[in-house]
Amino acid sequence: MSQDNAVKKNAMNYNKNRPKAENPVKIEDLSLRDGHQSLFATRGRTEDMLPVAEMMDQVGFWAMEVWGGATFDTMHRFLNEDPWERIRTLKKYIKKTPFSMLLRGQNLVGYRNYADDVAKVFVERAAANGMDIFRTFDALNDYRNFEVVVPAIKAAGKHFQGCICYTLTEPRMGGEVYNIDYYVKKAKELEAMGADSICIKDMAGLIAPYDAYELIAALKKAVKAPIHLHSHFTSGMSALSMLKAVEAGVDIIDTVMAPYAYRTAHAAIEPLVMTLLGTNRDTGLDIKLLASINEVFEKEVMPKYKHLLDDTKMAIIDINVLLHQTPGGMISNLVGQLKQMDAVDRIDEVFAELPRVRKDLGQIPLVTPTSQIVGVQAVNNVLYDTKDERYKMVTDQVKDICYGLYGKTAVPINSEVQKKALKGYARGEKPITARAASVLEPEMEKAKEATKGLAKDIDDVLVYALYPVTGLKFLKWKYGKEAPPADTKPTTMEEVRRKDELVQKAKAGQLVEKPQKKAPPMTESARKFNVFVDGEYFEVGVESIARRRTRGEHRAAHGGPDARRGTGTGRPRPGRRSESGRGRREGGPAHGPHAGHDRQVREERRRQGQRRRNRRGARGHEDGKRPAGTRERHRESRQLQQRRLGEEGGCAGDTVKKGDVLAIVG
Length: 666
Known about the structure:
Among the domains are: 166-250, no CATH class; 326-439, Conserved carboxylase domain (Cyclin A, domain 1), CATH 1.10.472.90; 444-480, no CATH class; 518-555 and 634-666, no CATH class. The longest helix is centred in the C-terminal third of the chain and has 28 residues, at 595-622. It has 666 residues and is of the alpha/beta class. It has an 8-stranded parallel barrel with strand order 1-2-3-4-5-6-7-8, surrounded by 6 helices. A 3-stranded antiparallel β-sheet has the order 9-10-11, with no helix packed on it. 42% of the residues lie in helices and 9% in strands. Helix 7 runs parallel beside helix 8 and helix 19 packs antiparallel against helix 20 (468-478). The radius of gyration is 41 Å and the shape is elongated.
């Protein structure tokens, strides 16, 4: 290996204002785009970027990637955010650092090739809204798909960064397809198109450290444009590969802030800053400023998203990626799809199917949108194929690839798969060989007509043009025509704290699972009550679970005539005079110190009762009425009670007691 670009040691200087290194490595930060796209399925919200925006602008990054990729889709579909507004908002706070976006060639920020008129207008509007660097790639490395967007980028006076999607057919670089000659050839094609810089886009973390050294060194000799390395951490190699690329003379590398680092995202910037300190390739970044930014991320932002991390494994790397070559964002999407189908336990089968599908489709690189296309087809094959039939459910996107709507593949597509996919295909069963978008009809005028009366400007029209179904729905949310779903609302830190408290209680065993008891059907005998609680009231039904009492039992319980006649056993009730007629009562004290007192009490009660009866009789005579006897009054009382029971159900005088069933009836 050549030592021409070897890192050289300098005097160590820890000062944040230390002299600029001889050949400093430039850093592009991906935290606010690819960082959360890889870890949190692109759910990062603009409001959670603002607390650190001004601080990150002071770091001195070569650029910050803040837009493009899956952000456009996710923002309008799941977050109820205007994608264009994010650029304008962040530009108010980040004024010095250039903005970078990921542009999927003729796919723009979608999952298919769009018509030329849409592609041209999209680039113009992205530049006008504040985008500076257009990192442009094609999933098949077919640069015919750059023929419309690149002139638009140049016309706007912006930076065109051409990408080569890094992929393999073997565990390491080499073989018949993706060897070093392939990548050098592609770099020369990009330079001929006017690339301001050239990026090796390693979306799955496949590039090994010594392969990175060899490739970067070869590219530096072959082309004049600055070389940029982008490599996901998925396999665990990217930090090592970055260091070897620095030794080989790479000009720019991609990293993220520590809270967004590793797993399926990217290497962290902080260790690299410390590693290159005191060398001719020192980044010049202030490690203390980076630490203060991380503190804000950890306290104010990341708690809202930690539940989205893939926690199905303890390891933060996936060495199997060297076999199934799946990019970070694709892995999180696959896990999400399988969870929705209740089939996440079959993820290993999907990983095994991925390379087979990829080979059938012409060894296409696994980068958006082809990674999603291959991934969904692999899921379909695992779930629906039989021993006798493969590709039982072919997606429309696979049919489009077989037809040529995405471009030319590195090697021919499996002829049997292609024939099956194109059987009955609407555009025809014979594949095309021309530039993919050349067969597409213009779309902008149709989009304007479809959004007439709703879209306020050309940016709104583009939302619809790129995503007709979800884009139209978003525009209705945006302008109050429909209410957005509750799940589009942001999570607050207060909600996070409440959830964390519940988790802590559960771990401490302080949460007891409430037993589920099925309520019995409420019968007509249930009585209705209003229950008042803290200024609110609830209408409840109350029904006794005991059997209904007979009329005799009811009278006995409430001191009716049956009770006075005895217990029904043939024995005198305690306290009644015996049939012998003697002075004492059976069951009462016959002798003893209190016997005389008891007789006096009984006699006094008898005289009081007689006086009350005399008074009631006197009042009745004065009114000209016959005085009502005690027996008649009791009869009337019983009749009233019985009528009321018939109207309300249940027993008059019953009270709610333990064991009764209460049911909400209103």
